[in-house]
Every structure is written in C-alpha cells, then in structure tokens.
Amino acid sequence: MISGALRIAVLYSLFASVATLANIGCQALVIWLYRGPLCIELSIALGTVAGLPIKYVLEKRHIFYFESDGFSHDSKLFVLYSSLGIITTALFWSVEYTFHYVFGTDTMRYVGAVLGLAMGYIIKYFLDKRFVFVTRTPASAGIT
C-alpha cells in the first residue's frame, strides 16, 4: 500500500504533467497558427488559461478531496485558487521568457516553461493546502 504522502506526490506530479502538456500543447498550437506580433506572449497566456481549470478540478477532487457547497462556492474557490496562482504564474512566465530570450528557440522556451511550471506547482501546492482547500468550521469562518 502506498503511504498518504507518496500517493499525493505521485498524483500531484501526474496532474501537474497533464496540465503542463495542456499548457505546452496550447502554446505550440498558438505558435503554429499565429506568428505575428506578440505571438510568444499570446501563446504563454493562452497556455496558462488551458492548464488552469484542468489542474484545479483534478487537485480539488483527487488531492484535497474538497467538496464545495455549490456553484457559487466553487466559483469563489476557483477565483481564490487562480488569485494565489498569480505569483507562481509570474515565476513560470519569467523562467519561460528568460529561456526564450537567452536561447532564442521554441524548444528551449518550452524547456524553460516546464522548469518554471514545476517550480510554480510545488509552491502552489502548499499555498492551496494552506489557503484554498481548507475545511472551515462555523467558528473559524466567523459564523455563530
């Protein structure tokens, strides 16, 4: 039987890989379809949008076993999840864009993307565990 921590690490790595593939795949598709002004920036932004909901749903269900109280609660949770991702997204974009600037090739930009995403995902796990996917009791939520 796999220990709890090892199971989480394996699943989280698998889900991060799926989201990374969606991100990089979307970026490659954007670059293939459009080579105009700001194509790199557009591909990075759309790649981020492609991977975000995949990772959110998989983590919520299979890492944190979190159940929302309905659509409104889930929407607020997704906004919080996304907001905490701003810092890790900035890290990911910085690493990817640095690789693009230094090496000047799509392949090395994608290597930078994978490294930046991996670093960001590690940080994001701990942020989500602490601030997003937490079960609040009525007392801790300020409800009496």
Please tell me about this protein's structure.
The protein is an all-alpha fold. The protein has one domain (4-132). Helix content is 79%, strand content 0%. It contains four helices and no strands. The protein has helices spanning 4-33, 39-62, 71-103, 106-132. Helix 3 packs antiparallel against helix 4. It is globular and about 45 Å long.
Can you give keywords for this protein?
144 residues; mainly alpha; disordered C terminus; 79% helix
Radius of gyration equals 17 Å
The number of strands is: 0
Helix-strand string: HHHH
* Helix count from the secondary structure assignment: 4
Which consecutive residue ranges, at least 5 long each, have pLDDT under 50?
A: 137-144
* Helical fraction: over 70%
Q: How large a portion of the residues is in β-strands, by DSSP E?
A: under 5%
Whole-Å distance between the termini? 42 Å
Largest sheet: none
Shape: globular
Number of domains: 1
Q: What is the topology?
A:
Elements: H1 4-33, H2 39-62, H3 71-103, H4 106-132
Question: Brief description of this entry?
Answer:
Helices cover about 80% and strands about 0% of the residues.
